[in-house]
Design brief:
Blueprint (H helix, E strand, L loop, with lengths): L1 H23 L3 H28 L5 H10 L2 H27 L2 H13 L2 H20 L3 H38 L4 H23 L2 H4 L3 H26 L2 H26 L4 H7 L1 H4 L2 H14 L2 H26 L3
Length: about 325
């Protein structure tokens, strides 16, 4: 509740402050920056104060300092990791503009605003629930069950959203947005592969805080950001192709997301391969779907391949639901 209140106040106060300071200050850019910083400060103060009222304790400066020392890994490692992740995500449009053109940047921006929307929405909602729940569990086995159950649910939601886009990004996006967004549709086809795993890895990544492995998580984040930028540049260096840059970028993101999921499971004395084996009934038809749809796209017309995909996709989603019902919901 306190986190939700803080997240509600931050964008509201940020918009109000940036508008007000933009009218008052001569330099409008300063107004945007100051409004952003002050809004974040207000949200932090509200979060601390609401927690203080809820616990009905009077925290002195010494008590706050003691908590900072106890949880020193959070500001030392988690804050830089969040900053690096934010820079790595927000600098992609800047790099695309430098390497290619504003048109390519706009096409990529439309991808993030449309196809990427469920990723942020579901990921943020689940993360806010997942972290406090897993933090309350004392035993390793209980934590492992919660993490694995979260992976199962998140993968099912992600599968539902992104698999259709992976195979039919062009007809789907161009039917909705128009032919002028053809490049966005091409980007969506490859980026949805990484989105498929990002929706799983992002919410459960907060387990690194619970297990006090922020340092390793920060190193992974730094490597991820660097390799993302290298991938974008290699596409430009070898072919001067925005599509190649985004494809390499998607491959790098996918590999790192899968590695991150495996790393989280390893912290729980498990690994991704064992997890898949224990839940083979949930994943058993995924590869078959890829073979059927790819084969249909080569052997029959696009109209019939869509029909085949819909039939296979519905069958697999029903099969996944049956597995969930008997394994996790019964």
């Amino acid at each position: 509740r306190n986190v939700g209140l803080s997240n509600f106040i931050r964008p509201f106060s940020q918009a109000l402050l940036q508008l007000s300071l933009g009218l008052i200050l001569i330099n409008k850019y300063h107004g945007l920056i100051y409004g952003f910083l002050i809004a974040y400060a207000i949200s932090v103060i509200v979060l601390l104060w609401s927690a203080k009222l809820e616990k009905k304790k009077v925290y002195s400066g010494t008590a706050y300092w003691e908590q900072i020392v106890i949880h020193k890994q959070i500001p030392l490692y988690n804050l830089p990791a969040v900053l690096i992740t934010t820079l790595g995500t927000n600098f992609v449009p800047v790099i695309l503009t430098i390497l290619y053109s504003t048109n390519v940047t706009g096409q990529y921006g439309m991808l993030a605003s449309t196809i990427g929307f469920p990723l942020g929405l579901v990921g943020a909602a689940v993360a806010q629930v997942f972290f406090p729940r897993v933090a309350k569990i004392e035993d390793m086995e209980g934590r492992r069950r919660l993490v694995e159950r979260s992976i199962i649910y998140l993968y099912g939601i992600s599968f539902l959203f992104f698999v259709p886009v992976i195979f039919f990004s062009k007809p789907l996006i161009m039917a909705v947005l128009g032919k002028q967004w053809e490049l966005t549709a091409e980007f969506a086809g490859v980026m949805s592969i990484s989105y498929l795993f990002s929706m799983v890895s992002s919410p459960i990544s907060s387990y690194a805080l619970v297990s006090k492995n922020q340092k390793t998580a920060t190193v992974i984040t730094i490597v991820e950001t660097i390799t993302r930028f290298i991938a974008l540049y290699l596409g430009y260096y070898f072919k001067n192709s925005a599509m190649l840059s985004i494809s390499l970028y998607a491959i790098v993101c996918t590999v790192i997301y899968i590695y991150y999921i495996n790393w989280i499971l390893r912290l729980l004395d498990s690994n991704l391969l064992d997890f898949i084996k224990r839940n083979a009934g949930y994943f058993r038809y995924d590869l078959l779907l890829v073979i059927i749809v790819v084969g249909a796209q080569f052997l029959v017309s696009s109209k019939y391949s869509i029909v085949i995909f819909i039939a296979a996709f519905v069958f697999i989603m029903l099969d996944k639901f049956k597995f969930l019902k008997f394994r996790y919901l019964s």
